[in-house]
Amino acid sequence: MSVLVVGSVALDSVETPFGKADNVLGGSxxxxxxxxxxxxxxxxxxxxxxxYPMAQLEPLRARGVDMAGxxxxxxxxxxxxxxxxxxxxxxxxxxxxxxxxxxxxxxIPAQFRSAPFVFLANIDPRLQLDVLRQVERPTxxxxxxxxxWIESRRPDLLExxxxxxxxxxxxxxxRQLTDCTNLVKAARWIMERGPSxxxxxxxxxxxxxxxxxxxxxxxxxxxxxxFDPTGAGDSFAGGFMGYVARTGDxxxxxxxxxxxxxxxxxxxxxxxxxxQRLLEIGPADIAARVADFKRLVAFExxxxx
Amino acid sequence: MSVLVVGSVALDSVETPFGKADNVLGGSxxxxxxxxxxxxxxxxxxxxxxxYPMAQLEPLRARGVDMAGxxxxxxxxxxxxxxxxxxxxxxxxxxxxxxxxxxxxxxIPAQFRSAPFVFLANIDPRLQLDVLRQVERPTxxxxxxxxxWIESRRPDLLExxxxxxxxxxxxxxxRQLTDCTNLVKAARWIMERGPSxxxxxxxxxxxxxxxxxxxxxxxxxxxxxxFDPTGAGDSFAGGFMGYVARTGDxxxxxxxxxxxxxxxxxxxxxxxxxxQRLLEIGPADIAARVADFKRLVAFExxxxx
Lengths: 305, 305
Prior knowledge:
Mean pLDDT of chain A: 96
Number of helices of chain A: 11
Structural class of chain A: alpha/beta
Low-confidence stretches of chain A: none
Number of strands of chain A: 13
Order of helices and strands of chain A: EEEHEHEEEEHEHHEHHEEEHHHH
Oligomer: homodimer
Largest interface: A-B, 42 and 42 residues
Strand content of chain A: 25-35%
CATH superfamily of chain A: Ribokinase
Number of domains of chain A: 1
CATH topology of chain A: UDP-N-acetylmuramoyl-L-alanine:D-glutamate ligase
């Protein structure tokens, strides 16, 4: 089954302690698509300017990303310039030019409206709500958000979460949204307001999946070389939603596996700039990394205990 | 088999967002003993002043902590006063009075010298080395340390780690000691200099166990209420070493289980002030929490993948 994603398609310029990349493919929709397309067909909705290097998106199209919903309009594409310091934990934004993205009004093509799995990447919650008005009873709707919207669009965001099944957000955002320092309490706060599933991402410290009273935790993969953290969260979401779309199974056991696929895809994303690594890998790499995750946390309880 | 611990026995005054405790039992040796004694006999070596409320240690003695190595000398006991802010992540030290601890010179009683498992809690590495000269070929020697010694006693610490099998330290300390930001690289750096096993503790973010090329990760237990983080690391070490001493098994599988026991004991420690919670719990509580850890990280790989 396919997964519909609505998000940004951008050009990133990134500086890390290991190198520099200028005007490379970026944006939540791009990372999500590059990741999810390893697991399921993807339908991408977004907007770019007339300066966008469309040919560079060809590898995504070749892997099954349907770009019928990617508008190209007159103007500049969304550009982000950022830098990571030595610890790679947080990006320092040096410049953001929204360009045509500032007037983005997602139009879901008719053939995408019945997508069973929908991911509303990190955009204005008013637009996320607008997308929900255009789709037809999806099986699972997930959304992402960020500190900016939690602050500036709180009522819209609270309205949005009434209508989604799942929200992904990072630990700082979860605390900001709920005013609960404790993440278990933060997740409960959110679950009382709509989503039955909450994923709290802690970056290099892994991710929690909350569903009813069940809590699952997957560590981040302990890479020796994290090259560029940009897009890790969106690649995580792509792996998660792609796996859910591939299996169509919303059981607790399967959602746990989906989190591991998400963590695996996130761990690939950070090994190179942009979506480079996500374009290189294949099913065997993904299977091997999932097996590594299994070994990473595996222990047997004592028989006699 | 028994485990010997050499560490501080102190009086803590702690303030958290949830309350205050004055002059309660604290210190690395105390937390370690309260934790490890659930799993194995403990031999405690430390020093207190003539002001120490010895009667309050009775519950530990009753649970099998041999205090033949706990000296009481004229003077003030080690006292620490600290505060945790809302996020509970790091203690702010308000006062430290070393008292008799400043002249601590561990004397291992003859009957303790053949202890098969030895834990050198966080004290001056010169004293840790001195303990090693007094014991007879233990099966496993583990040590802890802290930023203060990494800075002020680096040559001694590097000498010490040549002679220990295992070191536990937190992520910040591992980075400080090795000058590697990446924890996998930091662990390798340490393993090249002595210990064959490295445990890097990340507080609320869990703990890594490194042994040869194997990496194991155990999350911290997602408690809804963390009351007082003091002693979590030493309780972790106590659970780990206690489990290793109980089983006498140094296989990779068993060390993984030991990390989970450590994490379980650490998670109990933070539920109350001082060693209160560690004194309340029994085998059924520990088994239940270990089972919870198993559920927390459990996922099955896809059969067909």
